Amino acid sequence: MRQKSEELDDETLVTHVAAADRGAYAVLVHRHGLRYRALAYRMLGDLALAEDLVQEAFVKLWTHADRFDAKKAKFTTWFHRIVVNRCLDEKRKRTPDPLPEGFDQQDEADNAEDIMVTDSANHVLRNAVSNLPERQRVAVTLSYFDGLSNIEAAEVMDLKLKAYESLLVRARAKLRDELEGSKSGLLAVLG
């Protein structure tokens, strides 16, 4: 008796996708689509572009599933690498147009106090992370926002574990330095 696709692990599903099993493909898309869209959105800051890139990554999965080797990596690690690389490629080719002076003025409208506290703290953190060099920013995103283990994140970035951990240590040190200057401001905001 054949096992239902929903009950199979990701690696087995990929082997079914390689054999043109649309049901297995649909399960993988349903199981992981939102997670990778969130990753792409965090990296690119554009939801429509993130959706397009993840869709392209899933098309790549459909056409190149036979390239996946379960002995070398888990599906999620392998697919993380595809999405991250696709996002990095997109960021490299984009050249942002400068905004006119005074375009990005802060909204002075009153908000609920809790929303202000959260938004302010998140803004400081986002700015600190966005000021990191690209590879350090990717490392922080993979480890702290996507919850990957250091081993998985190192595989996604195609680095040895020690090199990845060193990159992460440098990123944390830069964040610590930058946030140290904002510490009094954060404490005032957080009460």
Automatic annotation (TrEMBL):
Cross-referenced InterPro entries, in alphabetical order? RNA_pol_sigma-70-like, RNA_pol_sigma-70_dom, RNA_pol_sigma70_r2, RNA_pol_sigma70_r4_t2, RNA_pol_sigma_r2, RNA_pol_sigma_r3/r4-like, WH-like_DNA-bd_sf
Q: Where is the RNA polymerase sigma factor 70 region 4 type domain?
A: 125-175
Keyword rRNA-binding (UniProt): no
Keywords for the protein's UniProt record, in alphabetical order: DNA-binding, Sigma factor, Transcription, Transcription regulation
RNA polymerase sigma-70 region domain segment(s):
28-95
- Give me the segments passing through the membrane: none
Family (UniProt): Belongs to the sigma-70 factor family. ECF subfamily.
**What is the protein named?**
Sigma-70 family RNA polymerase sigma factor
| Upper lineage | Bacteria, Pseudomonadati, Pseudomonadota, Alphaproteobacteria, Kordiimonadales
